[in-house]
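User: For a teaching handout, I'd like to show students what a predicted protein-ligand complex looks like in token form. I'll give you the sequence and the SMILES for calcium ion. Please answer with just the structure.
Assistant: Understood, here is the input followed by the structure.
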Amino acid sequence: MTSLRFFPRMTLGFAVLSVILMFPSLTICAPVVFMASGPNPAGIQATVDVFRTTLGTLNPNVAGSFGTGRREINWDGVPDALSAPNNLPANFFNVNSPRGVTFATAGTGFQVSGNAGVVPVRFDNINATYSNTFQTFSPQRLFTALGSNILDVNFFVAGSSTPAFVSGFGAVFSDVDQIGVTSIQFFDTNNLSLGTFNAQPFNNGLSFLGVVFNAGEQVGRVRITSGNGPLGPNDGATDVVVMDDFIYGEPNAVQAVPEPATLVLLGSGLAGVGAAVRRRRKV
Ligand SMILES: [Ca+2]
Ligand SMILES: [Ca+2]
């Protein structure tokens, strides 16, 4: 900063403005990161609560956009028929229970863990060691992609096919062992990365990672990387990680950007209006 002390403020401002004008797609990010890890839910609860408060009031699980506030998914109310050992439809939380998200993965699908007394809990149906590896933040269901440790969360106006953006997103992870592996990458509505953020590890514990963007950024997608390999009966020496609660800002419709041709028409239309005004003044 010392070198900037004698730099005229006006000149610096002009220089920054010039850079923005030269690179109109340049994104000025202002991420606010919330992260915690601990041996149990109490170890991350305070951070989760501050993240919730920052996003605003919890909205009901209905179609449409409330404009502000937040949505949450804790997986716990998913019907048995759509939980382990069965797969969860990718659009369950935009169709069956409208919360404005759909999932995508290069793997084979998605699964919500089973309830006690119905099927083996916490993905013991996949590997009998998993109930000793994973714990829940919100009892008693967890979530995972299948055949891949990477999944995308896409946002829509709840209950519709209208693309939407959110101001922030966070997730609870279970059994993050390695540093710099489990992460959330944020993309804006033009699919430009807003940054990748890593979850803090805690062996057999819970980790929370949430990011809010407070400079008007529009998050159109997040890519979640859970550990370094997919769940499986023989997952080897990998760091397997599953997910619990998703917490995110209310999805709002992405405003359509006029096509260049439309802009030309709009521009010529305005020029015509200007000419008409000038003609009228001459009369
Ligand atoms: Ca849960
Ligand atoms: Ca692990």
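For the handout, you might add this sentence: Residues 74-76, 136, 138, 141, 244 surround calcium ion (ligand 1) (CB under 6 Å).
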